[in-house]
Structures are given as C-alpha cells and as structure tokens.
C-alpha cells in the first residue's frame, strides 16, 4: 500500500538532492547522473512509494491507470493537497509537495526534449512555487495510505525502516528530550542534508534537541543538525556501514535498539 509522505520525499530526493537530468529519449534512466521526463519521474516515485501504477507510461494514460487504483480525479480549484498529482493530460505532470511547492522534471539543459545525463543547469528537475499550468485536474489518493508506524500493543516499534513520528518519538523518549515525534530545526534539502527516509522532520533554524542529545552522546559538536558526519557516527554506533545516508537499514537498526529502550 502506498504512502504519500514517501512519494513527496522521493520527489524531493530526485528533484533536489541528486543530479537528475531531463531527456525524453533516455527517460527511464532514473539514477544520479541519469535522465527522466516529467511522467517517468512521477511514475517512478509512485512505485518507490509503494503505489500500483498499472501500465501507466506517460501523461496520457496516467489518469485512467491511477483512478482504477485508488486515485480520484479532482477538479483544479487552485488548492491542491500535499501528495496530489498535478496533471495536464497531454503535456505535463508534477507532484504537489505542500507549503506552496511542487516538484517536477521540466526540460533539458537546452530547454528542449533531449539532453545529456545529469542536471546541467540545476533546473532540469526542480522544486518551485506552485503554478497553474493549467492543470486539467489533480489526482488525489483516496484509497488509504500506509499508516504511520506506531508502537504495537507490546509497546514495540515496528521494525520497518521508516523513520516516522512513532520512531522519532521513541528516540526522543530514550534520549530524554521533548517527545513530539518531529526532528525539528533542520536545513532545507540542498544535497547535504536531504534525507529521503526521514519524513518526520521540520525545516528552519535552531537545530533539534534530539539530535543535540545524540551528538553529545557520541562526542560530536552539538549543533542539532543531522548532516552526514552525524549520520555516520550514528551508523557506527549502531553497527551499520557508515555511508552517511540515513536509509532503511540504519533506521531498522535504530528501531531495534530503541525497542530495548536504549540507544
């Protein structure tokens, strides 16, 4: 079952964290340094987020395939919801991230349909303010999303590799900080601090008390920012390969440790 938070985070990842270019003749080469087009990127991220996309391959058949699988076609009223797919059936598709922003693949470095691998301009795939394309509709998921992981009746976290509010709240409880389920005060994703698997996060100044507590425990400078150095230290502490990416393997190790009420 799909998760809209994951869809949003995967669109953020591909449009902002890595260099992904635009080229219609290389549209399924979706990898850092590769290429996509607007529809292949959205379909790819939907699949990464656990949604069934059927035989959707381009903007022209996305509506039919997704509305048969739990999505509703909503009239464009200028007020999309986070996770909505913004669709022009003939020409373009993007995902609304919330907060007045959307993520999309736009055009190649030549402002044409084809180009080299990777984002040559920083805008081939991008996040920008919402605009009315015009969109023919919003595709909105109404079939239910994967619930945020919560402790089971035994008060154990589900060891699923998703660092959602339940995992963060338990981590905060173990570290003795305010347990609100959010890692706050983080830098906006910029290629250094983007964490696709960390969706219980708020951006802004100040850092996180939880991360400062973790950093102090690990003997690090306590700035409250969950950058790659802090993540590698967490991974070494948990016995995970220190690659600097706060991914599912790291989160599962963290969840297992938290289930013993320790870090």
UniProtKB/TrEMBL annotation:
Biological process (GO), any one: proteolysis
Residue ranges of every copy of the NlpC/P60 domain listed in the record: 1-142
PROSITE patterns registered for this protein in UniProt: NLPC_P60
Family: Belongs to the peptidase C40 family.
Entries under InterPro entries matching the protein: ELLD, NLP_P60_dom, Papain-like_cys_pep_sf, PGBD-like_sf
Keyword presence, Protease: yes
Record protein name field: Peptidoglycan hydrolase
Pfam families: ELLD (PF25309)
GO molecular function: cysteine-type peptidase activity
Organism the protein comes from: Bifidobacterium tibiigranuli
Hydrolase is among the record's keywords: yes
Entry keywords, A to Z: Hydrolase, Protease, Thiol protease
């Amino acid at each position: 079952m799909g998760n809209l938070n994951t869809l949003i985070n995967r669109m953020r990842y591909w449009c902002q964290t890595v260099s992904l270019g635009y080229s219609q003749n290389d549209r399924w080469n979706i990898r850092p340094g590769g290429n996509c087009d607007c529809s292949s990127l959205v379909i790819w991220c939907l699949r990464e987020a656990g949604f069934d996309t059927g035989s959707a391959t381009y903007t022209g058949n996305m509506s039919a395939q997704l509305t048969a699988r739990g999505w509703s076609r909503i009239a464009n009223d200028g007020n999309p919801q986070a996770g909505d797919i913004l669709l022009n059936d003939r020409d373009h598709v993007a995902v609304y991230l919330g907060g007045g922003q959307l993520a999309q693949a736009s055009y190649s470095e030549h402002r044409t349909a084809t180009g080299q691998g990777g984002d040559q301009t920083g805008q081939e795939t991008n996040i920008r303010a919402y605009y009315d394309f015009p969109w023919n509709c919003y595709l909105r998921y109404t079939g239910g999303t994967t619930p945020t992981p919560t402790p089971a009746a035994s008060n154990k976290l589900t060891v699923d590799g998703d660092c959602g509010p339940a995992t963060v709240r338990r981590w905060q409880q173990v570290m003795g900080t305010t347990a609100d389920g959010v890692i706050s005060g983080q830098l906006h994703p910029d290629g250094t601090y983007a964490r696709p698997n960390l969706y219980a996060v708020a951006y802004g100044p100040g850092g996180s008390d939880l991360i400062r507590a973790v950093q102090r425990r690990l003997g690090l400078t306590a700035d409250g920012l969950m950058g790659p150095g802090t993540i590698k230290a967490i991974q070494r502490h948990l016995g995970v390969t220190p690659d600097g990416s706060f991914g599912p393997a790291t989160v599962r190790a963290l969840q297992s440790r938290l289930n013993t009420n320790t870090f």
